[in-house]
Specification:
It is a single chain. The protein is about 10% helix and about 45% strand. The protein is mainly beta. The strands form 2 sheets. Strands 1, 2, 3, 4, 5, 6 and 7 form a 7-stranded mixed β-sheet that branches. It has a two-stranded antiparallel sheet with strand order 8-9. Strand 5 and strand 6 (about 75-85) form a beta hairpin. The longest helix is centred in the first third of the chain and has 6 residues, at about 35-40. It is globular and about 50 Å long.
Length: about 130
């Protein structure tokens, strides 16, 4: 079946709309957040772009890219865009990494990184940070 996680989604531009909680399939083999058409309609998300995507069976399709979306898992809110695709929400690698989540396949769970409970950490290993010489 796969690992599922409850995530909260909200339209980042329309504060009057209530957020919705969806059961998302967690898939590190996918790149983006994907949401069904009915979720995009309920959140009144504008189409920002169209993208060609390759799905699990190797087929390609042109789909809408919508946003901005506030996505939240536990204490990890993030601002993302989403591909409108499929009949179930799918949480891909970019939002997983951005929220600093840990996936345990053996336990079938998703949690915030226990080494960084209060805020997400990110890696920027290729960037040189200026230091002051003492």
């Amino acid at each position: 079946m796969g690992i599922l996680a409850d995530i909260e989604l909200a339209n980042a531009r329309e504060d009057d709309l209530l957020p919705m909680t969806v059961d998302a399939l967690v898939d590190t083999g996918a790149t983006h957040l994907c949401i069904p058409q009915h979720v995009a309609h309920q959140l009144r998300l504008p189409v920002l772009d169209r993208r060609e995507v390759t799905v699990a069976n190797g087929a390609t399709a042109m789909v809408d890219y919508v946003g901005p979306i506030n996505v939240r898992f536990a204490n990890r809110p993030r601002l993302v865009g989403a591909l409108v695709l499929g009949d179930q929400a799918l949480l891909g690698a970019i939002p997983i990494e951005d929220m600093d989540l840990v996936i345990s396949p053996s336990r079938q769970t998703v949690t915030v990184n226990p080494n960084n409970l209060n805020m997400a950490m990110s890696l920027a290993m290729g960037v040189r940070y200026p230091t002051t010489a003492g």
